[in-house]
Amino acid sequence: MGYKKIGRQSVKFSQKPFITGRGNIVGEKEGQGPLGKCFDTVLEDDMYGEKSWEKAESKMLKGAMTKAVSRAGITFRDVDVMLSGDLLNQLMSSSFTARDMHIPFLGLYGACSTMTESLLIGCMLVDGGFAKHVLAGASSHFCTAERQFRMPVEHGNQRPPSAQWTATAAGAVVVSSEDAAGLCRQVKIRAESATVGKVIDAGIKDANQMGAAMAPAAVDTLLNHLEDTKRGIDYYDLVATGDLGYIGKDIMMDLLSDAGLDKNKVFSHYDDCGTMIFTKEQDVHGGGSGCGCSAAVFTGHLLRQMEKKKIKRLLLMSTGALLSTISPLQGESIPGIAHAVSLEVE
């Protein structure tokens, strides 16, 4: 088996793993957004019939994964490993979901970049011959994230205009080594290459400026991906970052223009999941965020567009702010990271 690394940070998949199943569940507010009709399940109650927000998030992730496995035409017994993460301490939602599923589990933490991180590693496992079917996903919940990183929603604290709204959402995909009896009956969606991001710290210390903290990492990963693959941004029908929101998206476009990319090409080939999932009229301030943001937009909207061949080449690039509950209190800045996976309709 040949060496698969290309350039400085990227890998090229020789077997091009298939995306054979997808699933997602979102909250009520997300269902009221412009992509509401794209999601498999929209909750009427964000508690989802559970006694805590955390249990509700875990139940959402399990539901999204169950839908993805069903669409792939396999059972959980066929899954070799589950890759997942969330925003909670000890990956509570993912760990409790894995506990119920009784399948091998690798917990991942990349903050809001976790969906693409799990997809990237899943593709590597399949492409390397270590697994036949990998279940990859991520989740977040507005109330669990608020409770852990800011204030419980009962506190009623005022959010500054730059603050983003953590999406109540979960998404999952099945990555397979062969064309199973799932999505690929209609269209073959395959992972072509991927770029592992570096931690980039722009010195932002305000936890309500997540987009500004993550945008430099997204720019770094995209530029390195394009350099490693010898491509222009217009090679892709769409480059979708994870959750930079309105502020971070504008910063990224300015930084890409400063780096020499054609501004018109950037404008026509780039968008952000955090600006897609909500409208400004929904009072989300800086836009959407959270692990579930890119997970739900990817599995609910972007893959549907690929199934319809409206998008034939997609670069999914989820972004994450690597702060903890205590690091801002200790005066630390907020490091950012972004990972990228290139998907193509065959």
List the main descriptive attributes of the protein structure presented here:
346 residues; alpha/beta; Peroxisomal Thiolase, Chain A, domain 1; 7-stranded mixed β-sheet; 6-stranded mixed β-sheet; 10 helices
Helix content: 25-40%
Strand content: 15-25%
CATH architecture term of the largest domain: 3-Layer(aba) Sandwich
Poorly predicted ranges (pLDDT <50, ≥5 residues)?
none
Instruction: Return the structural class.
Output: alpha/beta
What average pLDDT do the residues reach? Answer: 93
| CATH homologous superfamily grouping of the largest domain | Stage V sporulation protein AD
Instruction: List the secondary-structure elements in sequence, H or E.
Output: EEEHEHEHEHEHEEEHEHHEHEHEEEE
Describe the sheet with the most strands.
7 strands, mixed
Question: What count of domains describes the coordinates?
Answer: 2
**Tally the helices: what do you get?**
10
Shape: globular
Q: Order of strands across the biggest sheet?
A: 1-2-10-17-14-11-12
As a whole number of angstroms, the C-alpha radius of gyration is 18 Å
Per CATH, what is the topology of the largest domain? Peroxisomal Thiolase, Chain A, domain 1
- Cα distance spanning the termini: 23 Å
Number of strands: 17
By CATH reckoning, the class of the largest domain would read Alpha Beta
Task: Describe the protein's architecture and organization.
The chain folds into 2 domains: 17-176, Stage V sporulation protein AD (Peroxisomal Thiolase, Chain A, domain 1, 3-Layer(aba) Sandwich); 188-345, Stage V sporulation protein AD (Peroxisomal Thiolase, Chain A, domain 1). The protein is 34% helix and 22% strand. The protein contains 10 helices and 17 strands. Strands 1-2-10-17-14-11-12 form a 7-stranded mixed beta sheet, sandwiched between helices. Helix 2 packs across helix 3 (92-101) and helix 6 crosses helix 7 (245-258). The longest helix is centred in the middle third of the chain and has 20 residues, at 210-229.
